């Protein structure tokens, strides 16, 4: 390669990376003037101007007029100008959550806003890997017309599994899968060479929650309370995976249950375990978590007793987790997170009981939109990669 071609390629890479930075600035701050974009990028108006022109011509950015409030606010700063903003419909990303008994799919745009969301009952644990992938892709594509398909920039999968960063699943006990090259199977099922991301459900949930709450400082533990109990750790806005990608797996903590047997936390506070115990004690069939929560709210003795037991186990697990990672916040998601909202006082009572040495107790809060689950985070992984410089 001669010096001229080398310079040309380097210059192209710099322009592309600056284009990504401009997209990041507009994503973070919303509509801005050309001067504000240049200031945030650390460039002069001339340099940033070329970048903006390319983004506008490519359909990623558009001009808009300032609102009356913005004009009034800037009335002493010269004549009103034109703002620039991201074009939401420029690109799209799909997120798929493969659960034990359901599939959830989400479609987001360039602003990471939800365009569509669908949920379908499907016993993935009984249907096998290939059928689960087929059904999830079918559901995801049902949200996409021809225009969206042409602008699709990737699909993210969220799975309750232990896996490596190459999309190979070592163990997905809840789904009854093991030693599965999920990424290769998914590639063979897709109609195009779309970018694909595969992530553990708790990590995907954490990534989605970062997007929703814009967490950038401190240590946050994210817990997904569903058929299993998954955990993800975020440090200063970045996901901490640990040495083997298993950091935060609080569901595998060993505890002593009501029979004095040693079991994992997941085995005693999971959705199926709670509803199964209530069925055994009450004789009622087809109980959902929403029905159980209503029984607790109505102060039905059996439901209240089981909820208190659930609070005890969760309190114990949170104390152990706090001793290990010292989080500033614990954010709960999944269908069972709503139960915590009802019995948070009992959870805090058990935290105090098990906290034999003083240490700061983190703030425990519900995710803003727990119904999104990890499908949103799976889509955000592709959004994150698209906006990234590398």
UniProtKB/TrEMBL annotation:
Q: Which InterPro entries match?
A: ATPase_NBD, ROK, ROK_cs, WH-like_DNA-bd_sf, WH_DNA-bd_sf
Which PROSITE patterns does this one have? ROK (PS01125)
A matching Pfam family: ROK
Q: What does UniProt list as this organism's lineage?
A: Bacteria, Pseudomonadati, Pseudomonadota, Alphaproteobacteria, Acetobacterales
Q: Which PANTHER family match?
A: BIFUNCTIONAL UDP-N-ACETYLGLUCOSAMINE 2-EPIMERASE_N-ACETYLMANNOSAMINE KINASE (PTHR18964:SF149), ROK (REPRESSOR, ORF, KINASE) FAMILY (PTHR18964)
Say which family it is in. Answer: Belongs to the ROK (NagC/XylR) family.
What's the protein called, per UniProt? May contain an N-terminal HTH domain (NagC) (PDB:1WOQ)
């Amino acid at each position: 390669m001669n010096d001229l071609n080398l310079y040309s390629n380097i210059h192209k890479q710099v322009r592309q990376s600056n284009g990504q930075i401009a997209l990041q600035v507009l994503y973070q701050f919303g509509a801005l003037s050309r001067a504000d974009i240049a200031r945030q990028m650390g460039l002069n108006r001339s340099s940033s101007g070329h970048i903006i022109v390319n983004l506008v011509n490519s359909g990623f950015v558009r001009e808009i007029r300032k609102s009356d409030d913005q004009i009034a606010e800037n009335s002493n700063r010269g004549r009103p100008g034109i703002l620039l903003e991201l074009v939401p419909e420029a690109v799209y990303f799909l997120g798929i959550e493969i659960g034990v008994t359901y599939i959830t799919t989400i479609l987001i745009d360039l602003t990471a806003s939800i365009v569509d969301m669908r949920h379908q009952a499907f016993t993935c644990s009984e249907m096998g890997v290939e059928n689960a992938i087929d059904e999830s892709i079918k559901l995801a594509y049902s949200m996409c017309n021809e225009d969206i398909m042409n602008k699709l920039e990737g699909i993210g999968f969220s799975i309750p599994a232990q896996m490596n960063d190459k999309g190979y699943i070592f163990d997905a006990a809840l789904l009854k899968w093991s030693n599965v090259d999920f990424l290769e199977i998914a590639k063979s099922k897709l109609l195009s060479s779309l970018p694909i991301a595969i992530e553990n459900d708790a990590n995907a949930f954490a990534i989605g929650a970062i997007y929703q709450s814009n967490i950038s400082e401190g240590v946050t533990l994210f817990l997904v309370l569903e058929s299993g109990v998954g955990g993800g750790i975020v440090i200063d806005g970045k996901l901490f995976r640990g040495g083997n990608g298993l950091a935060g797996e609080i569901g595998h903590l060993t505890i002593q249950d009501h029979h004095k047997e040693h079991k994992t936390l997941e085995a005693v506070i999971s959705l199926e375990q709670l509803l199964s115990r209530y069925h055994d004690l009450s004789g009622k069939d087809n109980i959902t978590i929403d029905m159980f929560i209503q029984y607790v709210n109505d102060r039905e003795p059996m439901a209240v007793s089981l909820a208190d037991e659930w609070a005890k186990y969760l309190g114990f697990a949170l104390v152990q987790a706090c001793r290990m990672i010292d989080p500033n916040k614990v954010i709960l998601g999944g269908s069972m997170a709503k139960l915590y909202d009802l019995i948070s006082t009992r959870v805090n009572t058990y935290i105090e009981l098990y906290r034999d040495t003083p240490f700061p107790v983190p703030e425990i809060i519900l995710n803003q939109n727990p119904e999104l689950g990890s499908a949103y985070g799976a889509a955000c992984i592709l959004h994150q990669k698209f906006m990234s410089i590398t």
